[in-house]
Records
---
Amino acid sequence: MKIRPFILTPIFCTIAIITNAQETIDSDSCLETDSIGAFENSKDEASADSALVAELQKLAPAVDSMLNAWYASHEVITNDFVPDSVAAADTMINGIPDSIFVARLQAMNSPIPMTYNEQVKRFIELYVVKRRALVQKMLGQAKYYFPLFEEALDAYGLPLELKFLPIIESALNPRAHSRAGAAGLWQFMYYTGKRYNLQVNSYVDDRSDPYKSSWAAAKFLGELYSIYNNWHLAIAAYNCGPGNVNRAIARSGGQRDFWKIYYHLPRETRGYVPAFIAAAYAMTYANEHQLYATATNKPVAADTIMVVKPLHFNQVSAKLGIPVELLRELNPQYRHDVIPAQFNKGYALRLPVETTLSFAAQEDSIYAFERNKYFPDNKIVPVSEATYGHMATPANSAKLIYTVKSGDVPGAIATRFGVRLSDLKYWNGMRRNIIRIGQKLVIYVPKSKVDRYRGMAKVVE
C-alpha cells in the first residue's frame, strides 16, 4: 500500500523513481539514496541490471513495489552458485503455450480471479525468467513467512492466496522501506499502521513485525473487500487507497471491474493486480520452471518469549550463543537491538524453538549480564545517546574503514562491499540514508575477501 486509506491523491509515479533514483538532499554534499539508488551508482551492477530497469519501464505502468523486490535482491551479494539459474529452453516462458498458463492459473481454485492476459504474462516472464535468483530467495523466505500470513488470513476468513501480496510489496523483506515511507513486509504507511494499532517509535516499528503487521494487513484487506465485494478492486485499493479506486470507478461510468477501470487508476496501481497474479503463479508453479528455494538462516521453528525488562540483543546472544544477526532476522521490529520492555508493558522476543527453554532457565542471568553497560541505572539509553559499538565484530570478519567520496550513496557502498544496507547503517549509527563526503564508515567483510577490498578501504588489522 502506498498511501493512507481514503486519500485521493497518488503519491508518486514509479517510472519517475526509476529514472530519477539519486536525490540530492542539500548543497553540503549530503547524499540520500533509496532502494533503487544503488542501481544508479553501482558500476559493478549497473550493466547487469540495466535490462531489468528497461523492462520495468516497458511494463507500463510499472509497480512501485517492484523496486522493493530489486532492493531485496541486491541487499546481499552472495557467492552461492545456483545450478538451475539458467532454465532449459523448454521452461522459458516463450516456449510454453498460453493455454498452459491459463490452465495452471485456473487450477489454483482461488476465490481471487487469476486472470491471464498480456500484462500478467509480462510479469510472469519477469519473475520466472529474468529474476530467477530473487524468486528462489523468496521461495526460501516463504517457508518461514507464509505460515504466519496464512494464520492471519484464515482467522479473518480471507483467501490464503493473499499471502502473495508481500511478494510484490516487499519481496519478503521485513526491513523494506519505500521512498514514500511505507515499511515492513506489508508496506504500511505510518498513519495506516497507527490506524491498525501498529506501534512506531524510536525503538520499535511494528510495521516490520511479521506477526502484528500480518494481522493488521488481514484486517485491512477484509475491510477493503467489504467495500467492493471484488478482490481485484480490494487489492488495487490496498495499493493506492479506496479514494483512488472510487474515483476510477466514477470516471469509468460506474464500472466495478479492475480491467474496465484500468486506465483510470494511478499509473503505479495498474500493474499491481497483474503483478500479484504473476507472483502467485511464480510461487505456486516454481518447480515447473526449475525454480528452487535458496536456503536461509531462519530456523524451521521459532517461539515467543515475553520480555518484561529492558533487554539488548547482545545480552541474549552472549548467554544463549544465538548470533545477533539471527535475533535481528527473527525480531526485525526492534530498531536498535533494544527491547524497551517494562514491568507493565511486555514485548515479544522471537527465538529458535530449541532455545526457549534455555532462556527461561537463564532469564535472570540474561537480564543481569553487563546490565550497567547496556542500561545504566537500569534505564534505557535515549536513541540520540545510544552506542552502536556494542555489537561484537561479526564472526570471521575483518573491519574496514571506508572514506565517503563524491557521488557515493549508502546503497551503492553496501552493494560494492557485499553487505546489507541495514547492517551498514547499524555499524555506523545511521538512522537515515544520509552520508557526507569525507565521512568514515565502518564495514565488516569476510576475512577471506579482505584482499579484494584493500584498494577500496583501509583494513583495520
---
Amino acid sequence: MPAKTINDIVALCKRRGFIFTGSEIYGGLGGAYDYGPYGVELMRNIRDAWWNAMIYSRNDVEGLDAAQISNRLMWKYSGHEGGFSDPLVECKKCGARMRQDKMADPTKCDNCGSADITEPRAYQLMMGLSIGAMADGAVNAYLRPETATTTYVNFKNVLDARPHKLPFGIAQIGKAFRNEISPRGFVFRMREFEQAEMQYFVRPDTDEKYFEMWKAARMAWWTDALGIPAEKLRFTPHEKLAHYAKAACDIEYEFPDGFDEVEGVHNRQDFDLGSHTKAQSEFKINANVMENKDSTVKLSYSDPQTGENFIPYVIETAMGVNRAMLAVMHNAYTEEELPDGKSRLVLKLRPKLAPVKAAVIPLARNVPELLDIATNIENDLRRLAIGRIELENSGNIGKNYRRHDEIGTPVCITVDHQTLEDSTVTLRLRDTMEQRRINIADVPAAVLEIING
C-alpha cells in the first residue's frame, strides 16, 4: 500500500532522520528544512544520478558551480527585479496572507473563509542583500532565485575555457532562494531549495528538434535512473507561456493530492543571452529584451566554418532536487501485510539511491567473536566505495531489519553463531525478505551485484 497522504512521508522523514524542521527548537521557520543523516545521502545520490546523466554520460555538456550571491544588475537585465513577483492578497479579518493564484477561491480567505480581502498586489520574490560597508542598507545584490541566470552570464567563460561547437550545454546543481508568500507541501515549495538545471545552446533553426530531444531524455531519466513508473509521470504543456519562452512543458509526478510539477523543459529562444550581451544592436535578437548598457561581454557564438556570429537559442531543463527526493520517497513508500499478520513499512528505493547501501548485523550484542567478523565485513564493504555502510550492534535482529527496511537499505548481512563454524553469513534482501547463506569471501561481490543490478 502506498502513502495515503504526504503526512505519511513527513512522519517517516522525522522518525528516521531524512528531514527535520529548520530552527525547530525555536519554533521553526516557514519554508525551511534541515536534511538529516539519511536525507543528505538520498539527496546526494539523486544529484549524482543527475550529474552522471548530464555530464559523465555525454561529451557535450560542461559543469558549473556559480556564486549564490550576485550583482543586482544581473537580475535587472534578466527581468527578475522588475517582474519576478506573485499576486499577494491579505485577509482583513484574520490577517492571513496568500498567493491569489493558489487560493481555493480567489474571493475568500483560505484560512477563515472571509470575503473581506484586499486587492492583489505584486510581491517581490527575490531576497535582496546590502553588501559592503558603504551600502547603507541599499539593495545592491541578490540571493539568486534560480541557477539558470548565473549560467548564462558564464556562457563565454565556459566556451573560452572548453571550446565546443553548437549544440552544447552547461549544467549546474545549487541552492536558490525565493521569498515565497506561502511555502507549502513540505519540501515541495520552500524559500531555500535546490535546483539541477541544464542550459543547452543551439542554432536558432534547430531549437524545436532539441526541445523534443530533451523532453524525451528527461522523461527517460525519471523512469530509468529514479525508478518512477511511467504511469505516475506526465507531460503538461504550459497554457500560458512566459515572456521569454517559445515553448514550455512540465514533467509532473502523481503525488497523493494529484499531479504536480517536478521538472520543466523550456525553449527560451535567444532571450537570456540576448538580455545579457553587450552590443545588442549588432545581433538579430528574436526575443523582446531590455536594452542593456552595462554588460561588458558579447555573449554570442562564432561559427568556425561560416564565420557567422549570432546569439544562440537555449533549451533548458530545470529540476527541483527537493521535489525529486519527495517523489522518489513517495514512489518507494510501501506498507505490506506479512504472513504472520503483522505489517512492515519499506522504502523500495533503487539500490543506487538508497542512503545506506548495506548493513552488517551481529546476531548477538557485544559478542567479541561475532563483532570482530562483522567489523571485518564492514571494512571490506567500505573499501568498495559504494556509499554508506552501517554496522549494527543492538542485538535485536528484528528491529534492525525493520529500521533498515524503513530507510531503504537494499541488503543486510547477518553474522551469527553458524558463522563461527563455517564462515557463512545470512544475506537478507529488502524487497522480498529472502534470506540465503553465502561465504564471507563472497559478500563484497554479492553486494556489488545488488547495488548495480
